[in-house]
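Onboarding guide, step 5: your first structure request.
Type a short instruction followed by the sequence, for example:

Predict the 3D structure of this protein.
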Amino acid sequence: MHEIGLALVSNLAKVVAVSVLGVLATATALDLWLELKNFPPLGTHIKQWGRRYPGFMAFLGLLMGALVGHFFFST
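The system replies with structure tokens like these:
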């Protein structure tokens, strides 16, 4: 039973890692395409979105800070 749990956690970690890398690769490809077509880069779109929804951006910032703090101080 314990081995099944470890296998599920291992598979979940692989899915999360591949998903994160996929999102980063997609964002990089989109940014390159926008640059080649002389459109504003992806960062500009994210900045404009963040200015429209400052509360949501503050929440995302706090969430990222909590994740980083958890990784560094979970010893």
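Each response can be followed by summary notes, for example: The chain has a mean pLDDT of 89.
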